[in-house]
Amino acid sequence: TFLHLDYSQNVYKELISLIKSEKFDIAHIHNIFPLITPSVYFALKASGIPIVHTLHYFRFFCANAFLFRNGKFCELCPLKSPIYSIIHRCFKNSLAGSFFVCIYLKKVKSRSYYKLADKYICLTEFSRQLYEKYGIPDKKLKVKPNFCKDRLKDTKSQQKEDYFIYVGRLSEEKGVRTLIEAFSLEKMRNVKLKIYGSGPLEDEIKSTVKIKKLSNIELLGFRPREEVVKTMSSAVTLVFPSICLESFPMTIVESFSAGTPVVASDFGNMKNLIKQNHTGLLFEKGNPKDLAEKILYLYSNRELAYEMGKNAREEYLQKYTPEVNYNLLMQIYEEAINANK
Question: What are the residue boundaries of the Glycosyl transferase family domain, all occurrences included (predicted)?
């Protein structure tokens, strides 16, 4: 597989055979790494089929696909050279793996594989700007966010309580250490936090909660989605302390759909999704004291938090429903078909 990351003749032949057996109006690609490879572009182009590709991550430009290294935003590969991916072992901390992915990135760049689709879907405006910066033509880039089902169809039944909620993976890039440190501060000891999820830092967090006697923090692990959404809808806010870019944080949109505002780090796509003082608050990335201040501000101004929740709900209805998403997608398909003529 590593020897054919950039092109596979077998995949090409299989796709050509598939295309000949059916009639396709358009092809919508989501992920081609590592198995499908850019061969899919050539098979579709040879068959005259319009191509739309949703860019979920930065795999064309970054070895780990997240533009994230050692806890920080990193643009060495897209702006300088993929050779840095070998130096820093960016692909799964493997020297060999990083070597092969580096070769893949070099070929992607030299052969402009990232320009072959008729339209590329970016999940946010922030991501669109990065993709344009890295070389994808502006005319090919379209912004269409993800969507979620309506989590709160009966807004009148919503009852807010006095806790905050975190939902997600318990790992370094998600900023959970900042989260725990914020709720460990003396002034935060009476503010309740419910944590849903698990991950590599789970044992560390359990130990910290036990040693520091953080009775205000409740670790709930994995629970049924219905329970999580119900708890989310009654929270003062969702807390989203991620220190990485985040492709498109679905938890934020789910929180909006549940009529709950979000307190998030002022970085990457979080900054793009949350309107300061309207659908939530932004705090300085990695700063537990600033996070605590934002939490306490809304904890003490519950009516303001409730108004932000109503704004968040309206934001969901305007931008993130299945119906709105479908209409956007059909427009992009039409543009791709016209561009392919």
Answer: 153-314
